[in-house]
Protein: MFS transporter
Organism: Sinomonas atrocyanea
Amino acid sequence: MTSPSPALPSASSEPQPSLAAFSQPSRPAFPPTGPLAVAAERLPWRHTFISLSVPNFRMFAAAHFVAVVALWMQRIAQDWLVLQLSGSVTAVGVTVALQFAPVLLLGPWGGLVADRFSKRRLLQICALGAATCAAGLGTLALTGALAVWHVYGIALVLGLVTVLDQPARQVFVNELVGPRYLRNAISVNSTNFQLGALIGPAVAGWLLTAVGGGWAFVVNAFACCGTAVMLSLLRKDQLVVAPPTPAARGMLREAVAYAWRKPTIRWPWVMAGVVSLFAMSLPVLLAAYADHVFAVGASGYGLLNTMVAVGALTGAIASARRLQLRLRTVVGGAGLYGAMLAAAAFAPSLPLFCALVAVSGFCALTFLTSANQMVQTSANVGIRGRVMSLYTMVLIGGQALGGPLLGALAEHLGAHLAMLVSGAVPAVAAFGLALWLRRRPAE
């Protein structure tokens, strides 16, 4: 591992109030968002992922990579098995809805818990919960007893686990690396996720055709247990742990008001809502294209998801080398993502479709990573868990509505029209917001 480079700027130039200010939610006046971090010069290529020089984060990133590969294996196997058991793309969308609905309904409370309790302990509990769900799915699939309603029920339980896991995981990155490498660590996590999305679907496609999807669930169960063990091995003396925020009335209302009055949180929040509702349930549409349009089966479905991940991985690496965070990057990434999906809607051949969804993956990661970085670095640490839970509620919870919506559109109006709607709405919304921001340069 290379030695750290000269000090990078703080993840946020926003003045940091004392943590005591957060114990009385009705009183504090949080300072406005300051200019976001700008690197003086582009990092050498060998320092592209410099946050990995932190031992705790290096261990976390390695375990996270294994977990993400296994998670994607489970996700692909789950969606394909539901499609085969039910013969309905809508049923796949319902599975997505059940898994994400708890985040939509309970997400802010997950952030409240993340601000008040140990993030490491919360992540351990969530990992063990996810392992139990995966083991249950694997047992049912391997014994031939799996039915669609089993998948629905376990997807709902996994959604409840996600309510606590997502905000705790987002904020825990800061405890691992501190503010100095926060932006870079977010990009590393995105790269990890996309590498997993590159490998996981391909492995899942092979398993589905060779030995059945049940083994994908078994692999994920072991990977989740590995995550729980890794968290117990971290060096606690090297964690940058902030004192828990004391309980007080109005903490969620305070977080909403705080987030809404900061343009660098508000507008990524708005665009995340539009993109998650219409374009983040892309696997539902890819299942329809694999089965009904190109007739390439389970292995082809894995290939399509892998092509998205190829583009997304490139976008994640580019994000790690970006000098400055700007709203135009967030809005532009969302708009281009939508435009690429709309262009792919009527692609006449599988190779062209694969190329377009790969470019869409690049644009999607440009949007997601820059939005995540902007929201995190714009929020004071004492309220960051609640702010990130609101962002996650919109980003993930929107898929609870978008999954069945796109599934129904694909089933009743055709995959082509569903893909067109999926891309056109975010593209139009991003164009409108870009015009609005151009007329209001203060934001």
User: Anything to note?
Assistant: The CA atoms of residues 277 and 376 lie 22 Å apart. The domain at 51-231+250-439 is CATH 1.20.1250.20 (Growth Hormone; Chain: A;).
